[in-house]
User: Fold this.
Amino acid sequence: MRWNLSSRARELSGGDAILISIPKSGRTWIRTFLNAYFSYKVGRQFSLDLTDRGDAGVPRIIYSHDRFEHRTKGNAWDRLRRKYLIPRRALRKRPIVLLTRDPRDTFVSYFVQLTRRNPATPKEIKEMSADALLRHPRFGIAVMVEVMNGWVTEFGDRSDFTIVRYEDLRAEPARLFHELLRAIGEKEIDNAVFGPAIDFSDFRNMQKLEMAGGFGSKILQPRDPEDSESRSNAWLSTKIALILHRLNERDARSFLATALRDERADPIARIDHGDGRATIRDECTLQFIGNGPNVERVPRGHRQRVLLQLSVATA
Assistant:
């Protein structure tokens, strides 16, 4: 059942539109675009929380992880009060946008965030392997899928419910951001500021602003690009994405149990065999942290330049 008996209910109420998502689904990108669009439109300096406030001429948008946070955050008392759920009355006659992303990609980013960047994560979760967290009953990928299906079941029959897919946004940002504005109730789209808002929220521009600290928000502030952990996180994210998308379970388990950190990894070749299988070769420096069942034993922490060849499924 949906209610919220906590003081946070007020924060999650009173919006002109609702945007719900699983963490790491691209919400910051959408927020950047929406705030850039309305900043340009009303002649205000860009602020990442402009649409949170709902100033004159700007819709107030409730950004929430809703069901997912209800499942994964807080204690039993928080869950009893439904602290992280948007109250039912706040959803009445308000357009709802569900931002979705392939849960395999979402989990990649979520794993890095949860185990490396979130100081509030319990120690036992931080020390989990990707393989273990992937199947975790509270934080695993199955919970992501269940929560998204729950939203669709709850809101799917509403005429003001819209699903926006991250992958579609990447492929056609202009068309999809136009549809997003319509979905949140922007009846007359100002084309004079729409283009500049698209350019402002371009990933390359966002990266430049991150480096300069131009967002003025901890949400987008980057880690030190020269920091070894930042480099290893980027590499780990890429490799887990490859594993979750392509590898069979045996190869994925062996690889994840073996290598964690890399200084530099450049794809060398991909060979498609035409039978649903392919071979990917990477040359990279690996630091071994353990040994899978199919890996020759090496000292923990040993670094070695290797030619990594993985058999993958293309279907």
